């Protein structure tokens, strides 16, 4: 069973591709056909049983995302037990489950909490009827509040909520009000994402990008939301993520800090043993495969300067250049004009983006790297 946290450990991500309905902005791999959920639970257990597991490897974080993983119901507990068999869970393992507030039941939440789940992430996105309709959400603001209360009643002491910024017509005042709404529910963690209209989605086909705020307006509303959340006691620790002290998402921090993780399920990505790979985005394939690890798509080596810079600068803690030799010195030289522009800070060899820099992080990163 539980091991001490000093063991060699990794993160496990489970992609559960089932949704009762598909949001018009979503481009994640998912299906609204729910008939194969029991088969899918068995397939996840099978994938765990065949996963690479060097002796002494434990799991420090588990994240069930999707899709709507809550829809697996009690099957989630079977997957959790299988994970513990293959990668014994550390004593302080963070186990996150994504859910929609309108789907929750107190009895199932209590079962999941008793079974080991200790972090719940609720997809709210908006807090008013018009905003929820625009984003294709099935729940109401009242259901969001009930869902938070239900999670607390079930014993969840670590809650996260998702909010969506830069939606059509949104103003800085409305963004601040949305942040205030999210904070008012009392979660320990808030993710506030900028809406990105992805190719192939209903939003893209409807020309939604043309209705979204422009770059200057987006910057104003993003900074307004950041300011509101800071004032409510949330630390802005990553481009889109805010947490009360000690409640940062340990699983996601593992991604940004370059730690190993395995992804299970169609389209799930892994970074393990110095390589990156991905499972094919094909539910039928995953359900039929006896050993999906034999058919993963190799995406090349992990690591390297570009990856280190990109991942480190997503975090408020920034990039420590002191161990990078001449490359680190070159980054510091290139950082000087960006510091003058207010896009980053430099302290004791650590380069970190400001909130203004977070908005243009891709351009800043390219400016820091050699051509």
Outline the structure in words.
It is a single chain. The protein is of the alpha/beta class and 371 residues long. It is 38% helix and 23% strand. It has 14 helices and 15 strands. The protein has helices at residues 37-50, 75-86, 106-115, 129-134, 141-154, 172-184, 202-205, 215-231, 250-256, 283-288, 305-312, 325-340, 355-359, 361-368; strands spanning 8-16, 57-66, 89-99, 119-125, 159-165, 189-194, 235-238, 241-243, 261-264, 269-272, 275-278, 297-301, 319-320, 344-347, 350-353. Helix 3 (106-115) packs across helix 5 and helix 6 (172-184) runs parallel beside helix 8. The radius of gyration is 21 Å and the shape is globular. The model is unreliable at 1-7 (pLDDT under 50).
Structure, briefly:
The chain is an alpha/beta fold. The protein is built from 14 helices and 15 strands.
List descriptors.
three-stranded antiparallel β-sheet; alpha/beta; 38% helix; 371 residues; globular; single chain
